[in-house]
Amino acid sequence: MNALKLINATLTDCRRELYVMAGRFVADLPTGLPHQIIDLQGRLVLPGLIETHIHLDKACILERCSLQAGTLAEAIEQTRLAKAHFTEQDVYQRGAAVLDKAIAQGTTHLRTHVEIDPQIGLVGFTAIRRLQADYAWAVTLDICVFPQEGLLNNPGTEALLCQAVEQGASVLGGCPYTDSDPEGQIRRLFTLATQYDCDLDFHLDFDLDPSGMTIHEVLRCTREHAWAGRVTVGHVTKLSTLPRAQLDELGHALAAAGVQVTCLPSTDLFLTARDHFHNKPRGLAPLEALHHCGVTCSLSTNNLGNPFTPYGDASLVRQANLFANVSQLATPAQLRRCMGWVSYESARLLRLEGYGLEPGCKADFAVFDAQSPEAVIAQVLAPVMGFKAGRQTFERGGVRLLRPA
């Protein structure tokens, strides 16, 4: 039985030590049980970070694409062209490269969205399933399959989605703005979700025009199907255009219905407001206001190295810092909330059990050379080591300055 004792730790409560046995935190180790001791020398321990929305299947393809307008439409079209040449091994290798980065950034759980349509079939899904098994030593991978090219207007897609769910996908995703009948897609996906007992995760309302919102149909369907706590909407940049009173009204409705919100800062900033030369809107889902309405929120990466987002190192801390900068969040409480949106709140959004640092929780955690969660966000710190089920998965050496004699 593997056992571990962490001493001289900094935690957000008064404890200085943590104990791990059989992959979980325990209150103490049995007397006489052999165990490893790690002296953290005052470093901060946080539960493993959680990526709630990432696309492993289409990461790292920028060199295969032509980036001219930088718009959402161009990103979809260029990815469609590149996707025609995807192979299972190609998807696997690119996804593995991203997972390697994510692990080294302290991430221990990811929900990845995988495109399903008649063009790509289940090629990407099969590759991600292999990654799910091969990387279980370091990360837990949830698979959300979704119709990037449309559902009702793309015959054959629904059958493939159902096949993927039957073969192990745990979440159904949606992309209503690419469908000939956006609200019809939402309704159909709710029907399928109840049939397969799946959570739902939509790419939704992704522009800065306040008209034409489909979030109200998601709200209606969530209530109708009693799917509270099982529905997430990502992007929803239209929310940033609403006056405070209107946003608060909608925020309280989302909280009451149990609809959750994910903001994807890097992608949303890169793709939106392209039609503005001056006074560019920031255009991010207003998580701070939604949080105060009682909405469960998260921050996530979305894309790396493709036409949707040419950047990225899989650092959730960097995404949280970017969001804090753009949203002008700076107090310790606000920065701690930003950390929550890549950890505890993300765990709630994904309905994870046993998340945290308390006895009984899974021993998935990261160690930072910091004294508080807010310092991690403010200074964009990378973790110095990470653990999955009590087993160390990586370590990062420190920088050594070579001062002149």
Task: Throw out a few tags for this protein.
405 residues, alpha/beta, Urease, subunit C, domain 1, TIM Barrel, 8-stranded parallel beta sheet, 4-stranded mixed beta sheet, 13 helices, 34% helix
Account of the protein in words:
The protein has 405 residues and is an alpha/beta fold. It folds into two domains: 3-46 and 356-395, Urease, subunit C, domain 1; 49-349, Alpha-Beta Barrel (TIM Barrel). It has 13 helices and 16 strands. The strands form three sheets. It has an eight-stranded parallel β-sheet. A four-stranded mixed β-sheet has the order 3-2-1-4, with no helix packed on it. It is globular.
Strands of the largest sheet, in order across it? 6-7-8-9-10-11-12-13
Unreliable stretches covering 5 or more consecutive residues: none
Strand content: 15-25%
What is the rounded distance between the termini? 50 Å
CATH structural class of the largest domain: Alpha Beta
Mean pLDDT: 97
Indicate the CATH topology of the largest domain: TIM Barrel
- Strand/helix succession: EEEEEEHHEHEHEHEHEHEHHEHHHEHEE
Structural class: alpha/beta
Superfamily (CATH H level) name of the largest domain = Metal-dependent hydrolases
Give helix % range. Answer: 25-40%
Compute the number of helices: 13
How would a crystallographer describe the biggest sheet? 8 strands, parallel
The tally of strands reads: 16
Instruction: Please state the second-level CATH architecture of the largest domain.
Output: Alpha-Beta Barrel
- Alpha-carbon Rg, integer: 21 Å
Principal-axis shape: globular
What number of structural domains do the residues give? 2
